[in-house]
Amino acid sequence: MVNPNSFNKGNSGDDERSPENAKLRRQQDKLTGFYLSNGNTAYIFQSDKEQYSERNVTEADRDEVLDMMRANKVPIEMERNLLVSIKGPYNFVGQNGIFSRIQHDKHQKRILGYMTGMRWGEYDYTSGDNVHDFLQIYPTPIDFEVNSRDFLQMIYDYNGEKKAQEYVDSMEEFKRQMYGKKYEYYEAMRELHREAMDPHRETMNQARRPREDYGKFGKKSLEAFNRPPVIRDFGVATVNRGQLIGHPDRQNEDASYSNTEAGVFAVFDGAGGMANAAEASGLARDLTAQMVHHNTPETADDLANILTVANKVVTQNAPRGCSTAVIGKIVEKPDGKVLEYASVGDSRIYVVRSGRAFLITRDEGRGNIITNALGSRNFSVRQTGEIPLLSDDRIVFCTDGITGDFEKDFIPEDEFVRAVGRAPSAEAAAQNLTKLATKVDDRTAIVVEVA
């Protein structure tokens, strides 16, 4: 396994007074003013006379920013525009100056060549022109990290873990050489997002400590390359109730989330007939996506926390809107694969195995009356757990449009098993369920096949 200590980019110890941590705190204080002012760059470049200058930022201001991030109120485009406006090394030393700093590092030259479209064996021919092209294609670290994971995956697949580790280290230095101050502020942004999305984190102290790289290219990602796959196949299908009642323009009040890389899947069902039902399910989905992106959940408690934060977002932003939710994470443990899950309301999780369909969750409601949901007064996450999985299991996450409310709506178990277990693919299984359902409702199913 990769040595976790090799990813520690900070100084040793927990000294909050180290130059690196003091600099990080100053940058985060400036970012606090930037966020609270809805993107006023004066707080970054000339903040001394502003309301939220770095000298005036309080813990309450910082907490307000963290709450904004939890509520998904910090647009990534606003952050990207800030990074574009910050001057980087290119503004001071030009393309050739940057290239002179990396030209003796073959790993960095290969990264530069690969990311600008050169063939693998041509990295010796890279030059300042490639630096110019790179910064045109990837003007900010956000653009680069979205597109560079395939490079590390390729190195791991063809050259193994040791070589991939070398490129992880070289890529860190490569980003600093290419982006300079832009990358420093990007790291400060990421640290704030991590803090906002992890309730178990020791907020201020942890933010000031030396940081391990838990981003796309850090320890968790590289260890993920070393694991056998846990998901063989997955598919999603949804039907808008409007298609069934002759109003195809009606808004679908279901929402779903699938992230095979993180192994996380969820469905949300906006409470039909209520104001802001579609908004409630959509907000819950978007919040889930943001939280998983910034801090991949590993346990049922982590998943319950996502639903708890989603409840706050729905309550604040979709008044009178409610949504049920089921969310699951497939985890590889030393003694086998498991499904970690959390549930609110009457959406369901099934495991189809050996000709049987096992219902994992229980409905919180009777008929059309839901007694627990995101956005409801009595909200709480009462259902969490861990279920052992076997290879070839198919897991179904579905809204009650699939399962029905009354006996006449229920799909008989033998038909449910045939629709899921005998389908040629997970996507076909999901489609089968949406077609087999008889309830006139939005219908959403995710089917995941375990490797």
Short description, anyone?
The protein is an alpha+beta fold and 451 residues long. It has helices at residues 19-36, 42-45, 59-70, 76-85, 89-102, 106-115, 128-137, 141-147, 149-179, 181-197, 203-208, 219-226, 241-245, 277-294, 300-317, 400-403, 413-421, 426-436; strands at residues 231-239, 254-259, 264-270, 323-333, 336-344, 348-353, 356-359, 365-366, 369-370, 383-388, 394-398, 443-450.
Describe this structure in words.
This protein is an alpha+beta fold and 451 residues long. The protein has two domains: 4-222, no CATH class; 231-450, Phosphatase 2c, domain 1. 47% of the residues lie in helices and 17% in strands. The protein contains 18 helices and twelve strands. It has helices spanning 19-36, 42-45, 59-70, 76-85, 89-102, 106-115, 128-137, 141-147, 149-179, 181-197, 203-208, 219-226, 241-245, 277-294, 300-317, 400-403, 413-421, 426-436; strands spanning 231-239, 254-259, 264-270, 323-333, 336-344, 348-353, 356-359, 365-366, 369-370, 383-388, 394-398, 443-450. The strands form three sheets. It has a five-stranded antiparallel beta sheet. A five-stranded antiparallel beta sheet has the order 2-3-4-5-10, covered by helices on one side. A hairpin with a 2-residue loop joins β8 (365-366) and β9 (369-370). α1 packs across α10 and α5 (89-102) packs across α9. The two termini are 22 Å apart. The model is unreliable at 1-17 and 199-227 (pLDDT under 50).
